[in-house]
Amino acid sequence: MTSHPNSTAPTRFPVVVVGAGPAGLTIGNILRAAGVDCLVLEAETRAFIEQRPRAGVIEEWAVRGLERRGLANTLLERAQLHTECEFRFAGDRFRFSYGELTGQHHFVYPQPLLVTDLVREYADVRGGEIRFGVQDIELHDLESPRPSVSYTDAETGQRQSVECEFVAGCDGARGVTRTVLPPTTTVSRHDYGVGWLALLAEAPPSSDCVLFGVHPHGFAGHMARSPEVTRYYLECPPGDDPENWSHERVWSELQLRLRADGTPPLTEGPLIEKRVLDMHNYVVEPMTFGRLFLAGDAAHLTAPIAAKGVNLALHDAFLLGDALVAYLGKGDGSGLDGYSESCLRRVWDYQEFSQWLSEVYHGTSSGDEYRAGTTFARLRRLFTSPAAAAAFAEQYLGTASAY
Asked: Beta-carbon neighbour count of residue 378 at 10 Å?
């Protein structure tokens, strides 16, 4: 049965999922496929989450995980496949063919499309209950066998209370689930000390692969999003005002930082998004508190340096969804008991790679001659040592800690 997005809910669900991003919707779909009822609560509207700009690089193991769960049909039809990336530095271009090294590739599929697929499958196909536009979510009695979640209904303005056995916190860094963690929780944070100006350009991609520009003026990145739209990044001071970057200044810096001998200029176009991201990471340990289990950005953040965020969110969702099904269906609690530890192994692996790659991207522009020297040493080794190339490809594709 297809449920109305804001239909009246029963007073009890086995699982309440807070947040309708990739993690929350994947968990919801896994539960519904196993016949487990759950309620997804989302503060934004359905139209908003289906249009919210986010990353678009999905690793092959993550797509195969979605495919096994019947959640990748449209993605497999529409996604671009990438097998190479290119570093540009010192006026030269260096193509890195990770597909040849590993036999694997990346899928480029904008996250809004993935969210659209997941919410359609959950709400419209599998009949999952979901409430959009809810306000003032509160979590209660998380250390008891019968926690509950209360919220204000968007249509009626009335408070609703839902009893459950488990809460999945998938509402991001600023969501309510982070606010209820006890003082014993550790939040480890790393600030890179740089910002990235994130841009969407109404312009076709200027390369058939991802470009990484390592330049004394700062890092620049080029990532295709569609045949008509390209994602660009420009390193900038943290906290910079996007209005400091005019159309002319943006394209001048992109042309400069991504220039290489023998390559044509970038294809320019109108800028339809312009915002500054301060580069930082954090990790929450453990990712559980009583009957609350965190997933995705609620539990950890990786800056877009290594394009790992959505992949980690999906990894969490696979583990948590499967563990909840095992417990609620068979009474097997081993997956829930080991959930945080299992997730954090991949989380810390990706954090380390993000930190390594940040030095490659930002060392040359740091003003520190020592860091600049080590940056070029890493790049030279990447393109002269088969062992270094294989290690980089493993981490870039996420196969070193495959699920």
From this structure: 16
